[in-house]
Amino acid sequence: MRTILVSIAAMLPLLAACSGGGGGDAGNAPGPANLPVNQPIAPPATPPGPKLWAWGEFVGGWVSAPFRWGGPEGITRVATPQVEKHSWAMAVADGKLWVWGKDAPGKFIGRLTNAPNALPQFTGVSDVAALADQCAVLADGKVWWWDAESDQPKPVKGVDAVTRLFPSDDAINALADTGEWWQIINGQAMPQGGEHLLAQTQFAAGLEAHLNTKGEIRLYGDASRGQLGDGSTPAQRVRGKCGFTQKSKQVALGDGFVVALAQDGTIWTWGDNKGALGHGANWSTEKSRKPAQIIGLTGIVQVQAAGRSAYALDDKGNLWCWGDNDKGQLGLGDKARKHTPARLQGMGKVKWFQAALNAVYCETE
What we know:
Largest sheet: 4 strands, antiparallel
Helix content: under 10%
CATH class of the largest domain: Mainly Beta
Number of helices: 2
Structural class: mainly beta
Shape: globular
Strand order of the largest sheet: 2-1-28-27
CATH architecture of the largest domain: 7 Propeller
């Protein structure tokens, strides 16, 4: 036993050196200057081409502040699987479908890296959606579907003139400008009814939000956490109701809360208040069940929510964020929850952004 103790004692200086320890305060020495929390110590060189950024737990890394990554020019859509830590992502750019990461569904996709590669099977792509299976819309309005076992994508029968795709909990939804709406499950399309033409659909935590072309929000499903917006917490599933009566141009659903972008460019939130409503840490439960405007955010052109975090882009290219931040998904250089909106800085004017669970992608001018 004495021999073993002596040997361990002799190794302690070596272990301390390997772990960054040493005499005095050397073990607590900070990392290199000007690097945000969690950012890699030796980040790769800034890639050429478009100014694409990512933060949170994104494909290829984990940082809590915006970090440049290389990708194609002209991205119009980014899609990721709705899981806490996604290992792959897809983007639509220049009519091509680009994929990167690892373990993306579809045998035909082949081996991937963290650098986006265009799939030769697709041309004229206009939209894409990711779930357990995947769908892409081509310029002719046809939808193609594939899953993890697919050797090649296949066309979805009975679907035509599709312009937009939205994933839900268990289906990919295809919308046409004619007002027709299909749910695609296992490559099969099921027509859905609707009282008005749909402009947008959103899905989160057992609740659906439909925004029709009249600017009206309708909720379907579990609104027991105050998402109905009329002050109640209904025990029964709601169907086609919403307490927010202002005309809206976008709606976003998070885990237990709703974000509405009114047609005047203001943002209204309601639901389960745990920092994600953006009204401050002391916002009461009673208040949270009714829509309230986030003071100070105006001229907003886009809103998104993911998990317990929310994001808004204004007409000056500023990206605002609030809510949970345990994975650095707010991009502010720390992991502290924000109860009111904070503006991201240091990237320039944001052109578009896409929020995934615990990660965000965007492009700047």
